[in-house]
Design a protein that fits this description.
- The complex is a heterodimer of chains A (373) and B (267).
- Helices cover 30% and strands 1% of the residues of chain A.
- Chain A has 373 residues and is an all-alpha fold.
- In chain B, the strands form three sheets. In chain B, strands 1, 2, 4, 6, 13 and 14 form a six-stranded mixed β-sheet that branches. In chain B, strands 3, 5, 7, 10, 11 and 12 form a six-stranded antiparallel β-sheet that branches. In chain B, strands 8-9 form a two-stranded antiparallel sheet.
- The chains are: A mainly alpha (373), B alpha+beta (267).
- At the A-B interface, helix 7 and helix 8 of A face strand 8 of B.
């Protein structure tokens, strides 16, 4: 009798008390869990609803695009283009960021020091009007009705939100955020080498590249350090919040080191000269799949990215953005020229390939639920 | 602490006479014990300030982007045990971090001493070898701060100073391991762990000043590369680690007391 009592208590606790199933993070032993907003706890049901919404073109005003149009699983949830294109064909000025471990991001998007929850970030592609991405603004009722009338979504919503009467965009955002938060990658050759102590997990060349990556000569890890290969990382056990942004000398259009006015980075938010050209260092996980690179997609390959850092920045010779970023007074102290042999450069590229998580980009739990129907 | 535990216990079980008796007894014992502990232990609050360009402040001065350092293994005398105290604090290691000037308080850390009878403390500036080369991802705070970690091979940046185009990162050097992601089995050749002496002049609150003017005195940073490799063999880097009480030739790399950068406000 007593045993059944305890069993039922445990089951009740385990099931959130409302029929939903708490999400279990597929983390390595001892790895910290990401921070999750208290008003949007992770459940299996919300993640599954979010996955459907992520892949559903009906979420855009004109039904032309889904989130997955610019975040393609096989490309590490980036899109392979220099800059994104919205549902109405409008070109987005920035490169579509890869989605990987963004549950651990200290900040979201390329350059917004205060934007720190996925729930708030999602409002930009969903409702933004300049540029239009999904283009829901002005089409709110139409978009909502598509899901309200669909028996599949009625079922998914009831499972995810058993206490809610009606679908609304707040619930859609929370489900999408839950799915995106679940896109966790920790199983690369590097992870197996570093955290499972499997010496054979990486090739000799990759190991040489890793030692270069972590060297004070190259200083890559000052910005792309930590388990997520970006210092802009936070988690549940972290006591200090760090959300660094850096100017890497990609541009310097005047003597003060400004970036082109079309995209000055953090300065667009703060208005400060010192924030010109500052962007968040993105995670390098799956980086071999996520080219072209930089906030504007202006560097095509990893080899060229490394050559860019070898130069300690970029000298744009002509055109409206002409100027020598290498000499920018606003450039981070960690971006300094260095010299590599061809073999060392190749070692470094090979190391970056060791950050590709094949299981992540083929994981059925992250894939298009409509593809098999 | 004892008293709190026993109070909770008695409130939870008031209705049963036998349990009530035991709990009253425990409560009395607990009160006595906690009284003993209150008499014998003491707590000291260490606060930190930074001096730069002649100005003293408790937040990042203009021109300094990052200023953080670890303190470890506080000791008093043979009979007094000392630990860092407070919620979520590692008893052996504390991270002191200056924040941008604004609303946040200046950095400080509490220390609990098992006896109040001490007139000085000593602390390592840095992370001792046995804690320095572990997987940082699975460590508890404050050893899980990514920006303070180099590699498994070198361990943590004991002190991190980033300023306008130049950095000084103090940490161990000459560490041997098969790759940057494998820890060394033997202590590094240059542990680079200076010792700080902190006088305790009877007060419970002490302020330590990290004097960057003393560290950087008459050094031309613009003309030199940053000092970040754990070896510090350029003339500039060698001068700086000497001011941290260390020497680049390996004659004084662990527990030396000659540093001139951190000092008590009262001195």
């Amino acid at each position: 009798m007593r045993r059944w009592f305890f069993l039922s208590v445990i089951l009740a606790l385990g099931a959130c008390g409302d029929g939903t199933t708490p999400y279990e993070w597929p983390l390595r032993d001892g790895f910290p869990e990401p921070q999750v907003p208290s008003d949007n706890p992770m459940t299996e049901e919300k993640v599954e609803l979010g996955r459907h919404l992520f892949y559903d073109r009906r979420l855009s005003g004109n039904q032309g695009q889904s989130c997955a149009s610019c975040h393609i699983q096989s490309k590490g949830f980036s899109d392979g283009r220099a800059s994104g294109v919205g549902s109405t064909g409008e070109v987005i000025r920035r490169n579509s960021l890869a989605l990987v471990n963004i549950a651990y991001n200290a900040t979201l998007t390329w350059a917004h020091p205060e934007l720190d929850t996925i729930e708030r970030q999602l409002l930009i592609p969903m409702f933004g009007e300049s540029p239009i991405e999904l283009g829901i603004s002005g089409n709110e009722d139409t978009v909502l009705e598509r899901f309200q009338k669909d028996p599949l979504y009625q079922e998914l919503f009831n499972a995810a939100y058993p206490k809610e009467d009606a679908m609304n965009f707040d619930l859609i955002v929370k489900a999408l955020a839950s799915f995106v938060r679940s896109l966790v990658s920790m199983d690369t050759p590097f992870d197996r080498y570093a955290y499972e102590y499997i010496d054979e997990a990486m090739t000799e060349s990759q190991l040489r590249g890793m030692d270069l990556f972590l060297s004070e000569q190259l200083e890559c890890h000052h910005c792309h350090g930590g388990f997520n290969f970006t210092q802009s990382t936070t988690h549940r056990d972290q006591t200090f919040l760090e959300k660094p942004m850096h100017n890497i000398g990609l541009y310097s259009v005047d003597a003060d080191g400004r970036y082109p006015a079309t995209d000055p980075g953090v300065a667009e938010i703060t208005g400060l000269l010192e924030d010109h050209g500052k962007f968040r260092a993105p995670s390098l996980r799956n980086v071999a799949l996520t080219g072209p690179y930089m906030h504007d997609g202006s560097i095509a390959t990893l080899d060229e990215v490394i050559r860019f850092y070898e130069q300690g920045g970029r000298n744009v010779m002509e055109g409206p953005n002409a100027g020598d970023g290498r000499q920018s007074p606003l450039k981070s102290e960690f971006v300094r020229a260095f010299a590599l042999s061809d073999e060392q450069r190749q070692d470094l590229v090979n190391f970056l390939h060791a950050l590709t998580d094949e299981g992540f980009v083929t994981n059925p739990a992250f894939s298009n639920p409509f593809a098999t129907q | 602490m004892f008293r709190n535990l026993t109070v909770t216990y008695t409130v939870g079980r008031l209705k049963k006479p036998r349990v009530l008796f035991i709990s009253l007894l425990l409560s009395a014992v607990g009160t006595l014990l906690s009284a003993c502990f209150q008499n014998e232990s003491s707590e000291i609050m260490l606060s930190f300030q930074v001096k730069f360009n002649g100005e003293v402040s408790d937040c990042l001065p203009d021109g300094i982007d990052t200023l953080s350092f670890y303190l470890a293994d506080p000791k008093a005398n043979e009979t007094t045990k000392v630990v860092f105290a407070g919620e979520g604090v590692n008893p052996r290691v504390a991270l002191i971090r200056f924040n941008p000037c604004g609303d946040e308080e200046g950095p400080k850390v509490a220390m609990r001493l098992s006896s109040p009878s001490t007139d000085s403390l000593e602390l390592l500036l840095g992370v001792p070898f046995d804690l320095n080369h572990l997987n940082p991802v699975t460590q508890a705070a404050p050893l899980n701060v990514g920006s303070m970690f180099w590699t498994w091979r070198l361990g943590y940046k004991f002190l991190r100073l980033d300023m306008d185009g130049w950095s000084f990162h103090l940490g161990s050097g000459g560490c041997r391991s098969p790759s940057a992601v494998r820890p060394p089995e033997e202590p590094c050749e240059y542990p680079n762990l200076p010792m700080l002496d902190v006088p305790i002049p009877g007060e419970q609150a002490i302020t330590l000043i990290l004097d960057l003017d003393a560290l950087l005195f008459e050094q031309d940073l613009k003309a030199a590369d940053s000092c970040m490799d754990g070896l510090y063999q350029s003339p500039l880097c060698s001068a700086l680690i000497k001011r941290m009480g260390l020497s680049e030739d390996g004659t004084c790399v662990l527990g030396c007391r000659d540093q001139v950068v951190v000092r008590s406000e009262t001195l």
